[in-house]
Design goal:
It is a single chain. With 499 residues, the protein is of the alpha/beta class. The chain folds into two domains: 309 residues, TIM Barrel (Alpha-Beta Barrel); 126 residues, no CATH class. 34% of the residues lie in helices and 10% in strands. The strands form three sheets. A nine-stranded parallel sheet has the order 5-4-3-2-1-11-10-7-6. Helix 1 runs antiparallel to helix 15 and helix 5 packs across helix 7. The protein starts with 6 loop residues before the first helix and ends with a helix. This is glucan endo-1,3-beta-D-glucosidase. GO terms for molecular function: glucan endo-1,3-beta-D-glucosidase activity. Belongs to the glycosyl hydrolase 17 family. InterPro entries: GH, Glyco_hydro_17, Glyco_hydro_17_plant, X8.
Length: 499
Amino acid sequence: MMPKICLKSILLLIGMLSNASAAFVGINIGTDVSNLPPASEVVAILKTTQTTHVRLFDSDAHMLNALSNTGIEVMVSVTNEEVLGIGESPSAAATWVNRNVAAYLPSTNITAIAVGSEVLTSIPNAAPVLVPAMNYLHKALVAANLNYQIKVSTPQSMDIIARPFPPSTASFNSTWNSTIFQILQFLKNTNSYYMLNAYPYYGYINGNGIFPIDYALFQPLSSVKQIVDPNTLFHYNSMFDAMVDAAYNSMAAFNFSGIPIVVTETGWPWLGGANEPDATAENAETFNNNLIQRVLNDSGPPSQPTFPINTYIYELFNEDKRPGPALERNWGLFYTNGTAVYSLSSSTTGQISGNSSSVFCIAKQGADTNKLQNGLNWACGQGHANCSAIQPGQRCYNPDTLRSHASYAYNDYYQKMHSIGGTCDFGGTATTTTVDPSYGTCIFTGSSNSGSSTIISPTAAFGPTTPSTGESLRIQIPEFGSLILGFIALILLDSLRVA
């Protein structure tokens, strides 16, 4: 006899599986801005651009109030000036949490606290109290029963990684060994994530011509310019991926694994001085549009393909009050009057402009799950896409998500058929991009890393069609979550019969 099952538990599990989060692109909001718009107008821009995640460099009350009831996930920050006091006093940490976090919940969706900004390299004298500050803040969250909702971490720059390339041999600067070990232990113990500030612009500039600019801009590389780690033979299609992998491998050198990385800052300056010729609007537009498409393919870097790279773009407005060279004041996506500095793709639609002749077909972020499944079934069945690479255990199976599998199948079909009329639509669930979606050993057809594709004879249809009544679709790649949900449903129905 089927054992009785708690209906509440089943519905909870169904909810957990159906609400699995996808990768996101958020944005940083700096305040060193002349004529900074009122918080309500800033939030209006965020809503217009459908921004789902923001990082504040402080805990400004006006912004936190304006963000209430928007659903936008908010990362608040302990400023570098506050780190010392909090790191020396548990009561100061508790007061900070009560005043800057608890007071705004639940209407403002605060989900993370960033402790300082690049503390180890910007204020090294605070290093001894950095981890104590993180611990005191976490304990304050535990006391308020908020520790499961809000994560604590600390953003660090790439400068604490002594040799970032090749990524397989990257390691943290030994100067910070003790503090970094404590940070990683804290992140592991609290199930938090490593916050990384990674700027390919600076990696490219400081490389003194070693790397081509296309590599920094997510542009396809010619066969003679491929960037390969000689130890792992991983191909790196972007400096961004290599930087993230360098951080993962640096953590591995301390015997830590399973700590995901969130890129808390990245971007490209759109204007610079006479000695900063690569800081152009064209390059900034290319970088950020390609970054969005890269992040939203839900895959990680070659060494960690199942860990999506959630990322925050630096930044919403130009911080014209910042000191230093001209480029420091020109990273913004918007002017303070709300107009865009340059064209930026939305997260779900639009075609990226680029210099590449290669165009790829990928699944849209947020596409309807049923339509996506139907598109995948059609591509692997009637569309004759070669879906062997996304079978369990094969090179493109991970990440095991419906969107990732659909992207591979859609692209394989599109590369074979677009020259004879095949489209990249799949019931409105697909879009084209010039950003190579390949990662690790998973090379998409049409990539400069792949060989020429074989053209097959056209079928009667050039895109998926709704099957007629009684017609079955060939299910080539069942999604794990769908199978589990189906299994749960069968158990539930059977248990109801028994009852």
